[in-house]
């Protein structure tokens, strides 16, 4: 391959490398927001870029059209690729990664072949958008992004305040394991309160607990079958600041 | 405009700052609404005007460059999408979002498409959005909410870009596209409904991209067809398949559009209807010597028809018919009843719980309709009776003509949903017609017109934008309301797919977040909602619990005091007729043998029916 041909295919090399690198990132237990954001193109950009390159030789589409195709063909790769795959296998993290990387590599290979067969050397068109993005505009855009982030933070804080002002506490009890129960209390009072929780069966207190819970704090208790002596429904009573506040009950299935 | 000017972003940065400021006002307005403060409405509406009006003014201005108009169109789209984010920046809320979230959860946990959906049946047959969201969720390892917002946000950018390019090429002017985009965002669905995590939000982008490819295919000359022909056909096939797997109505609308376009090309080859209607052949691809039906919009129409037929026959026939049949029959019967006098019209500008708009909001709502109605006859005259038109221009004018019909649907409750959903298609036609009429008025560039017209048009467009939002969104749901919980408990502690009896709002939350299966309808001819209305627990209630294998009953005690926002708590035809449920009926569950309250937060109680269920009715 001549050097000009190689230059033409740099973009496809980047797509292939980015796809493989994304697969590695998925496999590594890295976590973190930056890693997550680095993986977004594997779903929304890379397969579409490769497919667009395979379908339309360079220079045959305006750059804006290519942008549209890159996004929507990425959607096609994920939804139709997943559709075919799930006919035979299940979809999970590894298989989604495999599907999208394979589509990106295969489409890049087709695009590479089409470019190699093209008669005229390719001259990349200049984007009509980016060259004129001056410093003032870029700074203003950055400031707008900052304002938007502030707006989202403000709305989030408002939502959390609203939740804090929803004054109630929740009590619950559900079966756990074979013949056991799990019960709990969540404080949504927006302030510290004294709580007392009593688990009873046939009038006998099987477990008692008294403590303070801060705003948004929760407490959970589990009783295994050996601790659940007696018969009939298990009743859980919640006292708030010394007064009976809520009561729930559970009939264990083994006795229903 | 010279080339340098054509490639300048102009004052985009300054407009971006205004959008940021507008978003700040909206956020503060929403916070004020959460506290029921008086400043909520001025801040919210002020924010919306600050986002829309300056950009609209610039897009109407003849001095703006192409790059600036394109950038402003994207900015407007994404800015208005952020308004939806600010409604609830930490999670999903509307009914349809819960249905999509549930479908995504099924795919994430089951690994397969097409799981049944207890919130909206139709979602089970259209997995496009859930597939992309699940792929992103699993690959980047973050929450489905974040994945959903990234996908829908990117789709919004894609929609604005594709729409701008389509209108620009059809109107042969970037200014037609600029005006068209500014009018398109005024459609009542744009701000919230089309920004939500719902299949239509994504399908619109795919549909707009398909329009772009279809236009390119139709207008391609012999040399482009040689170079790009196979690529365009493959792109159309891929996009049609993706769209059909994503949303039914968008697919049908696209088929109708391409088929209508093909028909009008054929009609435009000769004076088909009357000698007064000029032929359009000179501006249509049919004037090319190599033109054939399949080298025009008939090919994407054929692709779409074949894909829809296959999808309905093999994959999603049942869920599609059950979803759409009820929507359309309800709309049709309610309109029929209205015409025959069997029922009165819906109170316009009123939510189901009786909450109404202010007089000013009503005036704005009505005022927003008038300019749009006025441009339609001018658009029809320009595209059908004057020279220099094309089949596509005529089709877009006909699409705009659907607008008055969609307004008529708003006279009934059932028809309102159909009207709302039609607006995102109808406004493509309205936007184009508005852009064409405006750009052809060349004298607007000179003299006093240059200074007076853009502000006047901006004021008019802002009324259309604000009024459209008032028409499309109930006063109750424009800004955030009270905080609801219990679904998080269900997700953590109750078995997935447990069958529950509950009201419509809690059903949506418990299915979307709690992964439970709400039960609706009738069992042995008994409406399941009767369990909530009977003052004493009776045999028929027991029959519902036993026969329908109900695992939990979820009771919202607030229904004894607060009327329902949507006009009903459980089902359209419930016995209370949308009035509060009797306290006695809601309290009966607390004293029932065999029914155990396993969750209680004061407002909402969840009862375990396992001991009660096995009893004979």
Shape of chain A: elongated
Proportion of helical residues of chain B: 55-70%
Radius of gyration of chain A: 30 Å
SSE order of chain B: HHHHHHHHHHHHHHHHHEHEEEHHEHEEH
Please give the alpha-carbon distance between the first and last residues of chain A: 77 Å
- Structural class of the secondary structure composition of chain A? alpha+beta
User: Mind summarizing the main beta sheet of chain A?
Assistant: 4 strands, antiparallel
Write a brief structural summary.
The complex is a heterodimer of chains A (256) and B (617). Chain A has 256 residues and is an alpha+beta fold. Chain A contains seven helices and seven strands; from the N terminus they run H-H-H-H-H-H-H-E-E-E-E-E-E-E.
SSE inventory with pairings:
The complex is a heterodimer of chains A (256) and B (617).
Chain A: H1 3-8, H2 10-27, H3 33-44, H4 46-55, H5 63-85, H6 93-117, H7 135-165, E1 168-176, E2 180-188, E3 193-201, E4 204-213, E5 218-223, E6 234-240, E7 243-250
Antiparallel strand pairs in A: 1-2, 2-5, 3-4, 3-6, 6-7
Chain B: H1 3-6, H2 12-34, H3 40-60, H4 66-87, H5 95-110, H6 128-140, H7 144-171, H8 174-184, H9 199-219, H10 222-244, H11 248-267, H12 298-340, H13 359-385, H14 391-409, H15 413-440, H16 449-472, H17 487-493, E1 499-501, H18 504-512, E2 517-518, E3 522-523, E4 526-527, H19 530-533, H20 539-547, E5 552-556, H21 583-587, E6 596-600, E7 604-608, H22 610-613
Parallel strand pairs in B: 1-2, 1-5
Antiparallel strand pairs in B: 3-4, 5-7, 6-7
Helix pairs in contact in B: 2-3, 2-4, 3-4, 3-8, 3-16, 4-7, 4-8, 5-6, 5-18, 6-7, 7-8, 7-9, 8-15, 9-10, 9-11, 10-12, 11-12, 11-14, 12-15, 13-14, 13-15, 13-16, 14-15, 17-18
């Amino acid at each position: 391959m001549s050097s000009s041909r190689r230059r033409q295919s740099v973009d496809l090399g980047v797509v292939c490398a980015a796809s493989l690198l994304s697969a590695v990132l998925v496999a590594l237990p890295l976590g973190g927001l930056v890693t997550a954001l680095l993986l977004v193109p594997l779903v929304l950009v890379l397969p579409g870029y490769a497919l667009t390159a395979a379908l339309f030789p360079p220079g045959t589409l305006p750059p804006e059209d290519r942008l549209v195709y890159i996004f929507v063909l990425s959607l096609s790769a994920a939804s139709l690729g997943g559709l075919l795959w799930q006919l035979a296998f299940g979809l999970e993290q590894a298989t989604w990664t495999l599907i999208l990387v394979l589509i990106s590599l295969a489409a890049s290979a087709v695009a590479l072949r089409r470019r190699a067969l093209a008669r005229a050397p390719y001259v990349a068109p200049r984007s009509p958008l980016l060259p004129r993005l001056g410093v003032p505009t870029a700074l203003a855009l950055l400031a707008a992004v900052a304002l938007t982030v502030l707006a989202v933070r403000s709305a989030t804080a408002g939502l959390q305040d609203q939740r804090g002002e929803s004054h109630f506490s929740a009590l619950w009890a559900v079966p756990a394991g074979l013949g056991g129960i799990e019960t709990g209390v969540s404080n949504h009072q927006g302030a510290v309160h004294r709580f007392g929780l009593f688990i009873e069966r046939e009038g006998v207190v099987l477990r008692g607990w008294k403590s303070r819970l801060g705003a948004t704090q929760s407490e959970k208790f589990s009783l295994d079958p050996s601790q659940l002596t007696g018969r009939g429904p298990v009743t859980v009573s919640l006292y708030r600041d010394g007064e009976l506040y809520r009561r729930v009950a559970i009939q264990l299935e083994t006795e229903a | 405009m010279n080339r340098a000017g054509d490639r300048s972003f102009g004052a985009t940065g300054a407009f971006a700052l205004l959008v940021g400021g507008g978003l700040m006002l909206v956020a503060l307005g929403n916070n004020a609404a959460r506290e029921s403060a008086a400043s909520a409405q001025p801040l919210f509406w002020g924010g919306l005007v600050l986002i829309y009006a300056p950009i609209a003014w610039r897009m109407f201005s003849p001095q703006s460059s192409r790059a600036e108009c394109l950038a402003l169109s994207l900015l407007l789209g994404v800015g208005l999408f952020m308004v939806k984010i600010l409604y609830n920046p930490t999670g999903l809320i509307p009914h349809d979002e819960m249905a999509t979230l549930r479908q995504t959860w099924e795919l994430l946990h089951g690994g397969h498409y097409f799981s049944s959906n207890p919130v909206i049946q139709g979602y089970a047959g259209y997995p496009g959005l859930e597939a992309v969201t699940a792929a992103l969720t699993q690959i980047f390892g973050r929450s489905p909410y974040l994945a959903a917002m990234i996908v829908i946000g990117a789709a919004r950018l894609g929609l604005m870009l594709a729409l701008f390019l389509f209108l620009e090429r059809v109107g042969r002017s970037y200014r037609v596209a600029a005006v068209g985009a500014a009018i398109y965002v005024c459609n009542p669905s744009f701000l919230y409904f089309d920004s939500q995590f719902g299949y239509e939000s994504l399908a619109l982008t795919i549909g707009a991209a398909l329009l772009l490819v279809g236009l390119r295919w139709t207008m391609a000359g012999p040399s482009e067809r040689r170079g790009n022909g196979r690529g365009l056909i493959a792109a159309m096939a891929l996009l049609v398949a993706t769209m059909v797997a994503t949303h039914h109505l968008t697919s049908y609308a696209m088929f109708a559009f391409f088929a209508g376009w093909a028909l009008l090309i054929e009609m435009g080859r000769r004076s088909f209807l009357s000698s007064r209607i000029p032929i359009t052949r000179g501006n249509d691809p049919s004037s090319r010597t190599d033109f054939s039906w399949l080298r025009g919009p008939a090919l994407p129409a054929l692709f779409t028809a074949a894909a829809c037929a296959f999808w309905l026959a093999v994959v999603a026939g049942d869920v599609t018919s059950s979803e759409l049949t009820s929507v359309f029959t309800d709309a049709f019967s309610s309109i029929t009843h209205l015409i025959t006098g069997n029922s009165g019209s819906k109170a316009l500008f009123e939510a189901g719980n009786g909450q109404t708009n202010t007089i000013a909001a009503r005036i704005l709502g009505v005022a927003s309709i008038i300019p749009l109605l006025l441009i339609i006859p001018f658009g029809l005259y320009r595209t059908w009776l004057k020279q220099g038109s094309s089949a596509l221009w005529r089709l877009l004018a006909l699409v705009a003509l659907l607008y008055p019909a969609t307004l008529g649907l708003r006279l009934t409750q059932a028809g309102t949903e159909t009207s709302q959903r039609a607006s995102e298609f109808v406004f493509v036609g309205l936007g184009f017609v508005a852009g064409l009429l405006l750009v052809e008025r060349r004298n607007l560039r000179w003299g006093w017109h240059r200074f007076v017209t853009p502000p006047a048009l901006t004021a008019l467009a802002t009324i259309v934008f604000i009024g459209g939002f008032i028409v499309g969104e109930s006063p109750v749901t424009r800004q955030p309301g009270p905080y609801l919980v219990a679904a998080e408990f269900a997700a953590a502690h109750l078995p997935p797919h447990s069958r529950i009896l509950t009201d419509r709002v809690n059903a949506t939350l418990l299915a979307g977040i709690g992964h439970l299966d709400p039960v609706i309808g009738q069992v042995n001819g008994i409406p399941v909602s009767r369990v909530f209305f009977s003052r004493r627990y009776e045999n028929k209630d027991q029959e519902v619990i036993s026969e329908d294998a109900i695992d939990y009953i979820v009771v919202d005690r607030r229904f004894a005091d607060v009327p329902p926002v949507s006009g009903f708590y459980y089902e359209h035809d419930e016995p209370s007729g949308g009035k509060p449920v009797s306290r006695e009926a809601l309290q009966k569950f607390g004293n029932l043998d065999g029914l155990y309250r396993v969750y209680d937060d004061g407002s909402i109680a969840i009862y375990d029916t396992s001991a009660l269920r096995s009893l004979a009715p």
